[in-house]
Write a structure and sequence with these properties.
The structure holds two protein chains of two kinds. Chain A is mainly beta. Chain A has no helices and twelve strands. Chain B is mainly beta. In chain B, strand 7 and strand 8 form a beta hairpin.
């Protein structure tokens, strides 16, 4: 069975600072993938970054990077140089026949 | 390239009624997945359609049903609505069904359903 755990219901970060959003996972599959999505108040899920279990390098997409520690089963999202527009819900998800989501972290960027 | 669209945006129904939600997949995509997101929760998988056939189902009762059409658009039908069905319903389209291969899912803006 798959499990995604996001232990931070809410996080605050000062504008222009970096922030790390935590995600741990559990799966019996050898091949899997992990996603991070951003959900603004409008509701749409916006894809941010993807990490495959066999990828040797940590994924990066602009200001987003994924700190993937396979042995610890963690896939933390790092947002550098936070902007006010980064305020949103952030979801970690695991790829299978469908996406299995965590409960999310609400990030608030303070001016 | 047209993105994923959903209709209606908002909907209010009463308990016991039936509702149909619609989703148009992104151009070229043949797979549609539906998710239910209750307030304060992450999305939960309802079912997926691949080339007009159901290709997997989550832990939802049979009163949640769906269809996919030849143009790969999809409908989600919910019968005998209950108060707990109040949620944001998200549709996501992708190319190819899930499994071992990576296939990014593109989400629509969702339909917010309120059951009174």
């Amino acid at each position: 069975a798959q499990k995604i755990t996001q232990t931070q219901p809410g996080m605050f970060v000062q504008e222009k600072e970096a922030v790390t959003l935590d995600c741990t996972y559990d799966t019996s599959d050898q091949s899997y993938g992990l996603f991070w999505y951003k959900q603004p108040s409008s509701g749409e899920m916006i894809f941010l970054i993807y990490q495959g279990s066999y990828d040797e390098q940590n994924a990066t997409e602009g200001r987003y990077s994924l700190n993937f520690q396979k042995a610890r089963k963690s896939a933390n999202l790092v947002i550098s140089a936070s902007q006010l527009g980064d305020s949103a819900m952030y979801f970690c998800a695991m790829r299978g026949p469908f996406l299995f989501f965590g409960t999310g972290t609400r990030l608030t960027v303070i001016p | 390239e047209t993105g994923v669209t959903q209709s209606p945006t908002h909907l209010i129904k009463t308990r016991g009624q039936q509702v149909t939600l619609r989703c148009s997949s992104q151009s070229g995509h043949n797979t549609v997945s539906w998710y239910q997101q209750a307030l304060g929760q992450g999305p939960q998988f309802i079912f997926q359609y691949y080339r007009e056939e159901e290709n997997g189902r989550g832990n939802f009762p049979p009163r949640f049903s769906g269809l996919q059409f030849p143009n790969y658009s999809s409908e989600l039908n919910v019968n005998a609505l209950e108060l707990d069905d109040s949620a944001l319903y998200l549709c996501a389209s992708s190319l190819g069904r899930g499994g071992a291969s990576y296939n990014e899912q593109f989400f629509g803006p969702g339909t917010r359903l309120t059951v009174l």
